[in-house]
Amino acid sequence: MAAGSGYYVRFNVYHRISHFVMMTTFIGCTLTGPPLKYSYDFWAQSMMSFWGGVHNAGLVHRVMAAFMVADFAVHALYLAYWVLIKKARIFGPDSIFFRKKDLVDLIGMVKWFFDRGDRPRFERFSFWEKFDWFAVFWGIAMIGTSGFALWFPTVTGQLVSGIFLNVARIIHGDEAILAIGWILFVHLYNSHLRMNVFPMDPVIFTGRVPIEHLKHDKAAWYDRLVREGKIKPE
Amino acid sequence: MTKRRIEAAGKGGEMSLEERGGGGWASRIAVRPTRTIVALMACALVALFAWGAPASAADVEGCLICHSDPDFTNPTPADGEPTSLYVDSKKFAASVHAELPCSSCHKGFVNTIPAHQQDPTKDYKEVAIEACETCHPDAFAAYQTSSHAKLFYQDQAAPICISCHGSHEIRKVRLGAESADFKMSMARDSCGRCHKDKFEKASHELHFKALSLGYERAATCFDCHGFHDNLSLKSGEEQTVEQCRQCHPGATAGFTYFQMHLDPGFENAFWGVRAVYLFFSTLLIVVLVTGIAYTTVHLQKETRTILGVAGRGVGRLFGFIRALEEETVRTHEEDDDKAHQRPPDATAGPDDEHTDRGGVA
Question: Which of A111, A161, A190, A217 to mutate to test the interface with B (most CBs of B within 10 A)?
């Protein structure tokens, strides 16, 4: 598994493509949705004009959303494959699901921020990576469902009631702002602007992480990889 | 018509200048100043008349001779307050009725100034709606079924045709292909003038948001409530379903429970909607504030590490601020050193500036 010359392949090709699709469709939706929500703001009209009007922006928004949901669906199949067929341990160290250690790590991390302890020794996925992953589930469930409800309003009216269109718009807008805010202020910082990866961490695009970096950033995982003989100790 | 006249007048002016000859006219002014001034004044007069009576093409009856004066009021006001009798001739010229003579709407007026008497048994508003009926019987019939009309025959302050459409400035509209701007201004300036509350609530909704960004297919007031019959639409009713179906062919009774006129805080909404709104707004704030707070404390740790600030616990925070201050002071001192190394004549001191200015004054 060692990629040679001090690198370890952390993300396979599927992981990289999946993140790339999520990223681009997210940006696509972010650039087309808010000008409608904030139609009264000074920037809304020019942003809409950039896309050639509300109709085109809506089209781009829907195409992007469809790809995002497709990406999510493939990921659900991928998870099902690992859990059901490969019988992977859901709460094992290689899993991206939350487990007890994440809470311990979070407390340890906050202690470290105030010099009350050492930096936690993270396993394969740190708790903020797990949270970002989980947030996609929450986001797709909330924004995706409400988005489809608004996309096909008459179906919504037939299946439930028209009042759910009012509800869907509240959820769609609020959750979208939450997602955009989270990506801008939290995800980008924690994944790319941290001191030891600044100005960006290319691992999600190249899949390769320097073993030297791994040793510091994911100490528990590094130890385990050395123990399992997957990488040579530096 | 009027526009063409003005253009023609403009062209005429240019031509006469050319006829006088490119370089020669300047010397002629010098030779015969009086004649030139008289000619120029004549031109100015012609131009003045061309601009002053732009709608006169349709004004075959000459009404605008008096009524284009902005200060023209009713000389014998009935209730003490003089009524303005001014007609903005430019707006009228741009209106869809520009080609019609005044008397086609203002029926019963006789052209004997100053009598101008109409049927004294009728209010001018009744005359006005009857005038519209002559050419627009269908719209008038629809209006007659509306709540506006029912109210009008009890209280004449209720809206009639001109309350929404305006009188002399009625614009040209191609039905079914209205511009987003027109639809927006009808909602805001016509319906919204009385139904301000309803308009403001609806303007928080996606139809109006899209419309305000230029999406002309988005529904405005009259697309749902009808042009002249101004339907009062209730959720679940057959008529409401039909109105929705104009744009949403699959609309069912359930669909019509969508609420178009909710206030931004959803206080007038079904409690479930307000609960969802409060829950997701709270979630938005709590999650973002927590995330940003976490990022901020992470950032201070890293900044301290970069600056190499010593100390323990909270004491480090103060050390961090001190270190930043020291860093700032150090940078400023370096800048000062650089400034002092510059040759003295390269920069003009403030005293030199004063002397310079004094010299000029």
Answer: A161
